[in-house]
Design goal:
Blueprint (H helix, E strand, L loop, with lengths): L4 E5 L4 H12 L3 E6 L24 E5 L5 H11 L3 E4 L6 H6 L1 H21 L7 E7 L22 H20 L3 E6 L2 E2 L8 H13 L6 E3 L5 E2 L2 E2 H12 L7 E3 L5 E2 H11 L2 E6 L6 E7 L11 E5 L17 H7 L7 H24 L10
Helix pairs in contact: 1-7, 2-4, 4-5, 6-8, 6-10, 8-10
Bound molecules: NADPH dihydro-nicotinamide-adenine-dinucleotide phosphate and guanosine-5'-diphosphate-rhamnose (GDR).
InterPro entries: GDP_Man_deHydtase, NAD(P)-bd_dom, NAD(P)-bd_dom_sf
GO biological process, one term: 'de novo' GDP-L-fucose biosynthetic process
EC number: 4.2.1.47
């Protein structure tokens, strides 16, 4: 068992939750930074909760924010971490068009604040840093599949901010000999995925449509192609990247790309509903061809998927497909889930969640939030 100390920014997010659990199992003492919020925001890590009044805890949370350098410096000084996983970010690409300055501050300069704190505190020889870089850096297609050597062409304020974070990580590694690495992770999903990312939006809506709780799923660009993996596999790669002898950057991906429309088809198939798509562009609709599951009464001919241009982005990333050769060879990383396994896992979880929600709603209780 390890006796290392890790600090995770973004511990309340999808990846932070899986990584915290993974590191605790390895024997790490895990510190996490969470934001103050008017409602509890620790749902994803509640199962890891430890009473703060008990001694020798191995999961400790600190209030903080990536936009506050003094706060970050104080936490890093207190914690003296062996490893920092910088996962905190305003991570929604479409929202970054609406909050570009904040996104630059948190996602770009936030990374600098962490690196600079390590340097000023004299921790450059002790603390290793993982930076959550992204396939969004590739943006407008330059080559496929995309590898560590593919040039970047970011297509959103989010991706531009992450590009700064990528290069400042490389620069601190080269300038100050820090063990600082970028994991260039392609899209990864799970039952813990934020509800407004496309995969989770789909699996939630399909579950609700099957259970008669929603009529139609509205989507944007269904032609977009993504290389989707499972977050449980991807957080293992983050850890492996920091266990190597030399600090380097790695692409983490499955090497398979799929259209949003086909993800929709696969999710409906999980509840026994076969879909056919008619029309084109904004007029495209998904219509039920048949429903073979006797538990669900969705009639053939029902229009269950439509396009809402509100979800189109000012500049889109049309095609992502990663080349994971380096991570497979050097890290020995292999994903356990394929896309089918991922869809199954997400659908099983959301069908259960929506069944519970339906039951509670019918009993007059307030349950899940439905705002997007
Ligand atoms: P989530 O959106 O699920 O989680 C983001 C986390 O960051 C949350 O804990 C959030 O807190 C926190 N956060 C947001 N803004 C701040 C801030 N200003 N200060 C402190 N904390 C903040 O993202 P994921 O878990 O999916 O992704 C983790 C990281 O990996 C992100 O940096 C993302 O950009 C990057 N990434 C993700 C990929 C993916 O497919 N999931 C692919 C490639 C990169 P709160 O819970 O309070 O909102
Ligand atoms: P992405 O994920 O932008 O790739 O960023 P998202 O799931 O939001 O979009 C994927 C693709 O689906 C298209 N799309 C829609 N997207 C959303 N959210 N809602 C819709 O209704 C919809 N309809 C179609 C999008 O246009 C896009 O092409 C994610 C985030 O986790 C980033 O933080 C991370 O860096 C990248 O993945 C890798």
């Amino acid at each position: 068992m390890s006796n290392k100390v890790a600090l995770i920014t973004g511990i309340t997010g999808q990846d932070g939750a899986y990584l915290a659990e993974f590191l605790l199992k390895k024997g790490y003492v895990v510190h996490g930074i969470k934001r103050r919020s008017s409602l509890f925001n620790t749902d994803r890590i509640d199962h890891l909760y430890q009473d703060p009044h008990v001694e020798n805890r191995n999961l400790i949370l600190h209030y903080g924010d990536l936009t506050d350098s003094m706060n970050l410096t104080r936490i890093i000084q207190e914690v003296q971490p062996d490893e920092i996983y910088n996962l905190a970010a305003m991570s929604h690409v479409q929202v970054s068009f609406e909050t570009p300055e904040y996104t630059a501050n948190a996602d770009g300069i936030g990374t600098l604040r962490i690196l600079e704190a390590i340097r000023l505190l004299g921790l450059t020889d002790k603390t290793r840093v993982y930076q959550a870089s992204t396939s969004e850096l590739y943006g407008l297609v330059q080559e496929v599949p995309q590898s560590e050597k593919t040039p970047f062409y970011p297509r959103s304020p989010y991706a531009v901010a992450k590009m700064y974070a990528y290069w400042i990580t490389v620069n601190y590694r080269e300038a100050y000999n820090m063990f600082a690495c970028n994991g260039i992770l392609f899209n990864h999903e799970s039952p813990l995925r934020g509800e407004t990312f496309v995969t989770r939006k789909i699996t939630r809506a399909v579950s609700k449509i099957a259970l008669g709780m929603q009529d139609c799923l509205y989507l944007g660009n269904m032609e977009a192609k993504r290389d989707w993996g499972h977050a449980k596999d991807y957080i293992k790669a983050m850890w492996l990247i920091l266990q190597q002898e030399k600090p380097e950057d790695y692409v983490i991906a499955t090497g398979v790309t799929t259209k949003v429309r086909d993800f929709v088809r696969m999710a409906f198939a999980e509840v026994g509903i076969e879909l056919e798509f008619k029309g084109e562009g904004v007029d495209e609709i998904g219509v039920v061809k048949n429903c073979t599951n006797p538990d669900y009464q969705v009639e053939a001919g029902t229009e269950v998927v439509k396009v809402d241009p509100r979800y189109f982005r000012p500049t889109e990333v049309e095609l992502l497909i990663g080349d994971p050769t380096k991570s497979k060879e050097k890290l020995g990383w292999e994903p356990e889930y394929d896309l089918e396994g991922l869809v199954k896992d997400m659908m099983a979880s959301d069908v259960e969640l929506m069944k519970k929600d339906k039951y509670l709603r019918e009993g007059g209780y307030k349950t899940l939030n439905y705002f997007e």
